[in-house]
Amino acid sequence: MCGIFGAVVREGDVTPAILDGLALLEYRGYDSAGIAVFTSRGMERRRRVGKLEILRNALAKEGFGGPATIGVGHTRWATHGGVTEANAHPHSDSKDELVLVHNGIIENYLDLRGDLITKGHQFLSSTDSEVLAHAIEDRLQTIERGGARQHPDISALEEAVMSAARAARGTYAIVVLHKRYPDRIIVARQDSPVVIGIGRGAAFVASDVPALLRHTRSVYYLRDGEVATLTTEGVGVRTLDGKVVSYRPQEIAWDAAATDRRGYPHYMLKEIEEQPDAIAQTAFDRLDDENGDVRFEDFDVSDEKLKSAQRIQIIACGTSLHAGFVGKFLIEEFAGLPVECDYASEFRYRTPLPSKDVIAIGISQSGETMDTLKGLGQARERGAAILDICNVKGSSIPRMSDATIYTHAGPEIGVASTKAFTCQLVALYLLAIRMGRARGRLSRDDGRELLLSLRKLRPRLDALFNDAARESVRALAKKYQGSRDFLFLGRGLNYPIALEGALKLKEISYIHAEGYPAGEMKHGPIAMIDATLPVVVIATRGRDRDKTLNQLEQVRARGGRVIVICNAGDADARRLGDDLIEVPATSDHLAPIVNVIPLQRLAYEIAVCRNLSPDNPRNLAKSVTVE
Ligand code: AGP
Predict the structure, then answer these.
(1) Cα–ligand 1 centroid distance for 182 (angstroms)
(2) Does 317 sit in the ligand 1 pocket, CB within 6 Å?
(3) How many Å lie between the centroid of ligand 1 and the Cα of residue 488?
(4) Closest ligand 1 atom to the C-alpha of 316?
(5) Which residue has its alpha carbon closest to ligand 1 atom 9?
(6) What is the mean pLDDT of residues 256-281?
């Protein structure tokens, strides 16, 4: 979950590039930040508790003793050890010659640490990560003192990193620099994302692609069990036991400008506003209007495979899981297939059932979520075919899948997912149509009609992106910012949207919120309703609207304060709501896309009213790469 950025360049100073790279990765963790570089004074390191800004200010007051052509930085999301400067990365070895940053969890760190303490190592932090710095130091000493070399064709440092990594159990992306090997950065990976950027006379390493784009678009996603050596001459990759890996860098299509805030006060707002374009990019090149069907690029899944499937298993976490709940409705209806949709963290530990003729679909913005990755691995072991819907090309989940549908949302930096979610909904809509057509459940005309609704959606979204729409949500945010709790209700396809509305509010405003199926409210949560509880009810026109309005009556009868999401001109919904958010009309199947947008905006505006930073909510990280 932590952010890592490292660079080695022929000339210039890497410090500003490292700080800027970390700024783009801060969404991964902001408990503390640190940087280490080699200058003419030797290894210099600064670490600070809190956001990167605090480290930047410290460096502005007391910078390093000169430019550095090699260095590494880290933003931490604490797992082992409190949020203190001693626990901040980079960590160093006993002699301050080696520095190391780590993302992941070393499960056997207590055993390793015990052995090293017996050998005289002293630990200065309570992290699991520091043990790796000492383990590498220990092995390096042995090798340099003439210990038997397994790979005399590589430097002692690489060999020491390989040996220490082989002894570590758990997950890691590590980056190592050493004073006596000042021309190289060593990177190793197991189950934690890390990407190498290959530039001209320069090489970079980062936890995620957006941080690299200012320097290069040529990247290589290091794979599990690989170790890379980065120098200004190029990048070499080997396996943990020293075998040379011949790798092909890939070119990233995103441009660096896509990672800027472009004048918006927060990434989250920028990403909310980008949704009409992101939805269009995810949808329109794939529509085969003539045949009422969908063509995904590089999606090698035959009609036979889709026909023979007996069940779909969706696996995801958080917001992506909510998209999966919508997908369940769509696939069951369009393709006539039973769909189960599970929290990945639960699925991966359930009793294995054989899953032949099951298609497992992983949904993930980042493509790196550990629970989803492991859940899909479980599904594969049980015999399922694996598909995924993902926003990040080349990330771990697409790499382990049989086929991927990419959402073309562009980089999503805000911790609270917004545009990736609506693009996931579009991708699921398209996939459900593809499955329905392949299985003969949807006719060509049915397919055409569904595609036409999607084409009509884009211009209708404009009604959510004008000043009046923005202002009306802002006014509601001001009115309700002081509430202690919120309840979100929705039915059918809008039930997952109620869950998502509640999740957004919890994540960035820290207001307790629950999403509930509207019809289930009377079985419990109705007890909470009083004049202090705002209840957001999604009641747009469609098959569930009348029933939802009935539930709304029940809330009103108990004095609840109701905010209704309804279509323009719906007099009944108007009558029942204390406050309204009007949204454009669309089909039942596409209503979740429309209805979630004002809920994202409401959460954003409430966070701003409460003086909170929507891009960096406390305790959260964007990409959850640990268990
Ligand atoms: C979304 O706002 C969250 N921060 C979180 O729930 C997220 O959706 C979840 O961690 C899954 O991430 P992924 O889509 O990258 O797999």
Answers:
(1) 38
(2) yes
(3) 19
(4) 16
(5) 318
(6) 88
* Residue 183 pLDDT > 70: yes
- Domains of the chain, CATH where assigned: 2-250 (3.60.20.10), 264-461 (3.40.50.10490), 466-614 (3.40.50.10490)
CA–CA separation, 61 vs 568, rounded Å?
A: 56
Which member of 2, 390, 423, 566 is catalytic? 2
Cβ of 388 closer than 6 Å to ligand 1, yes or no, is: no
**Per-residue confidence at 26, pLDDT binned at 50, 70, 90?**
confident
In 3-state terms, what secondary structure has residue 530?
coil
Ligand 1 neighbourhood includes 318 CB (under 6 angstroms): yes
What's the pLDDT score for residue 28? 79
Report the separation in Å between the CA atom of 297 and the middle of ligand 1, taken as the mean of its atom positions. Answer: 25
Q: Is 426 exposed, middle or buried (0-12, 13-18, 19+ CB in 10 A)?
A: buried
DSSP state of 88: S
Catalytic residue at 622? yes
366 lines ligand 1 (CB under 6 A): yes
Report pLDDT digits (tens) over 364-421: 999 999 999 999 999 999 999 999 999 988 889 999 999 999 999 988 989 999 999 9
Does 90 sit behind a cis peptide bond, omega within 30 degrees of 0 on the bond before it? yes
Alpha carbons 530 and 223: distance in angstroms, whole number: 54
d(CA 462, CA 465): 5
Task: Give yes or no for residue 460 having a pLDDT over 90.
Answer: yes
* Under 8 Å between Cβ of 473 and 605: yes
Three-state SS for 611? Answer: coil
Q: Distance (Å, rounded) from C-alpha 422 to C-alpha 429?
A: 11
Q: Where residue 169 falls among pLDDT bands split at 50, 70, 90?
A: very high
- At 306 the pLDDT is 96
36-85 confidence digits (pLDDT tens): 999 999 999 999 999 899 999 999 999 899 999 999 999 998 888 888 99
Phi and psi torsions of 559, nearest 5°:
80, 10
Strand order in the sheet with 485-490: 512-517, 485-490, 534-538, 561-567, 579-583
Atom in ligand 1 nearest the alpha carbon of residue 624: 10
Residue 352 has pLDDT above 70, yes or no: no
CA dihedral 286, 289, 292, 298 (to 10 degrees): -20
pLDDT of residue 171: 87
Active site (annotated) includes residue 2: yes
Q: What is the pLDDT of residue 349?
A: 84
Q: Which amino acid is at 530?
A: D
Residue of 328, 419, 506, 622 marked catalytic: 622
